[in-house]
Amino acid sequence: MDSLALILAAGKGTRLQLDGPKVMQLLLDRPLLWYVFRSLRPVFGDNIFCVVGYGREEVETYFTDFYNFVYQQEQRGTGHAVQCAWEQIESSGAEFVVVCNGDTPLVPSSYFQDLLQEVQKNNLDVAFLSIELPDPGNYGRVIRDKSGNVCRIVEAKDLNEGVESKEVNAGVYCFRTVFFKKYLFELKDSNRQQEYYITDLIELAINNGLKVRAINKGYAEELLGINTVKELVRQEELVRKQIVDRFLTQGVLIRFPQSVAIGPEVEIEPGVKIQGPTKIYGQSSLYRGAEIGSYTYISDAQIWGRVHEFSHIVGSVIKTGAQVGPYARLRPGTVIEHKARVGNFVEVKKTVLGKNSKANHLTYLGDSEIGEGVNIGAGTITCNYDGKKKYKTTIEDMAFIGSNTALVAPVSIGKRALIGAGSTITKDVPEGHLAIARAKQFVTKRGLKK
Ligand code: UD1
Ligand code: CA
Q: Per the residue annotation, which of 80, 308, 338, 361 is the catalytic one?
């Protein structure tokens, strides 16, 4: 192994004001740290380590397939975080270590690659990325001498009068492992925050006659970190725009693109129509022919058909020619087959609605298997839960369920069976039979007087 990446993700993120560890806050629907892994993977493969501390359980639970967590019990600074990982770094045998902040999610893979190459090509000991900001705010300032060589990084909190720079540290570094071996534990916490700063390693390297370089990326928004909610929504907007623009370029029709959010793992074929404000998240795929109405929320769905306005679709499949909504809710495990129809105020969970079948109004279908050409009348409810267990409802091809029917599961309705409106069905109905289970109507002259 010649290089490895180390992510610093142990901080609480106090300035963010939100509950939970900072790196688990979401951009679109993925945690900040997910994005950092995404851009490191193509360059470092499995040679990635991640320092966690505050809220580590939450981080480790989300990234269950990742094993290289390093624990920093007390958050005593970014330099201390690296020290916590020293054992792993040394035993990996890597010659170079790229370190990055877990709160800077949008660094492109190529930046890591280029940084590594720069160090190798120029035989540097340390290099890091810098950016130019009109307002350098809380970033560490990059201080250069008269000939333009880097001297040190000064943290915003330790700035003294007369020292200022618009070039700041982006928090992406590459170190030679032998440099760490010699100097990592020489860091001091003699600063206003009494922390061990990774940034002090720059001055330490220079004072020891080593080759250090800052690679200035100019005004690179993708290198901005997230410390406040304002910075969080700013970076979210940046990645949202990137994704929407990419799909527009590929020929996906996205109307009112400024109000459409598409998650980083969503796939959409050219020719798909997205009609307005929408969120499409998770591992969703929209195929040619799909059309998504405004104000819908879609997550982990496979869609060939049409979703009308104000629908909520999670973990479901909508096949070609099928239509869903407006105001429909599809929950995980739902399959709406070819040309089937789910209308307004219908909730469907863990149910297959067969080809050409219809459930158009005010219905709940849960744990059901519904055949082809079935008509589910308005207000039909599958009573799938007895307070302890869930039971299955089966409705076979061409059956007709009258309005306001309660189907008390487990129950089966045979092919071409007909259920009278207002029935409470507790027993199976065989193929071709009619079932009515409701009180008989009773009419007398005892109405109100004029
Ligand atoms: C840091 C840099 C600053 C740079 C900026 C870029 C230091 C001292 N300062 O400042 O020069 O301009 O990033 O965004 O490094 N962390 C740990 N353990 C700790 C402390 C922090 O793992 O003990 C992690 C945090 O979770 C975070 C990252 O390190 O992901 C950076 O820490 P943060 O406190 O955000 O540093 P900044 O003040 O932004
Ligand atoms: Ca930060």
A: 361
